[in-house]
Amino acid sequence: xxxxxxxxxxxxxxxxxxxxxxxxxxxxxxxxxxxxxxxxxxxxxxxxxxxxxxxxxxxxxxxxxxxxxxxxxxxxxxxxxxxxxxxxxxxxxxxxxxxxxxxxxxxxxxxxxxxxxxxxxxxxxxxxxxxxxxxxxxxxxxxxxxxxxxxxxxxxxxxxxxxxxxxxxxxxxxxxxxxxxxxxxxxxxxxxxxxxxxxxxxxxxxxxxxxxxxxxxxxxxxxxxxxxxxxxxxxxxxxxxxxxxxxxxxxxx
Length: 253
Hints:
The protein is mainly alpha-helical. The protein contains eleven helices and no strands. The protein has helices at 6-15, 37-54, 58-65, 68-85, 89-92, 96-108, 112-126, 147-164, 171-190, 198-223, 231-249.
């Protein structure tokens, strides 16, 4: 299947433009609006709540500093960048560029006071009140979140999606797990620091885009209350991850 650049892919998904996906009867089949910019904002707010818990006191912050703080802030940075590039970003009423920059500050914070200062900026940006928001929308996706934190988050979300495939109680909330993995996969595709050979880089990009497309369908199915319709693309996504690990992480042929 012919691939398209990931930024273009995100724009097409956001705009509801048809994408060539395995099993489509025709390339003109229209896909649901995924990711909805409002969903990106919802996930951003969830990460704000999590980061707020980490700065309650020095002990809690130090415990979160090793993994949870940079992971949550890194995910938030990815969400913010996705909002910043979204064709419908104005309706989000979020200062997306400022949100991204504040999330990166939170990700890199090593002291409680630094994390609290970054959190205050995050709250202001999510309220759409950051002045100025900044004009530099462009940002390297591979500098938003570390690979370890990204993979840990994606594994956690994938486990939750697996349970949701059996029964989804809150379609919108449940769909955010797939939407988050979709967005994180854009960062994954951009980060080729773990692969060297041209052949492996191509495989990395292809696998990332396959997973993005699978999560697009999964998120839409769950959001519409039809989680079972997302089972096959979800399993396809799991197989894609497994194949990547075997070839690029474990070195299996």
